[in-house]
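call fold(seq) -> tokens
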Amino acid sequence: MSRFIAFDVETPNYYNNRMSAIGITVIEDGAIVDEYYSLVNPEQRFDAFNIDLTGIDERKVANAPTFPELWKEIEPLMSSGLLVAHNAVFDMNVLKKCLRDYRIAWKPYARYTCTVQLGRRLYPGVSHRLNDDCDRLGISLNHHQADSDSRACAEILLCYLKSGADVRQYIRTCSFNR
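ret:
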């Protein structure tokens, strides 16, 4: 496995069924080779908690693409390697709900891995919150900013791979069947 697509999403509210931002960091042959970031107009209200956490509100996304508009641009990238996220169940579920709610057909399933799960198996007994992993590994982080979080996830994965981790043991499948 030589191509990984690390991604992170921010959400506008507690429903976690829409994105307000997405960051994507591409790893190929052991190096970061590309990065992508976009705000997303979720076409939903924002909760104060999410605004405080991410700094993203209705005003900031007013001219941003909606998920269906954005998906046309990012789908080739998202399809080009193994998906990776930190606490991947969250990010995969948001992606799944966006695809479902906007009735966008992608593929029946996607394979992914999670740097939290990988870290727990490789380094048990320590916290694997994103900021804690970044502090421990000396990775720069502007937490709850999708571009920074996706890059941090990619750098964590690279650290694990350089230490000899075999990601193949930690691949999971997310079904997109309705």
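The longest strand covers residues 31-39.
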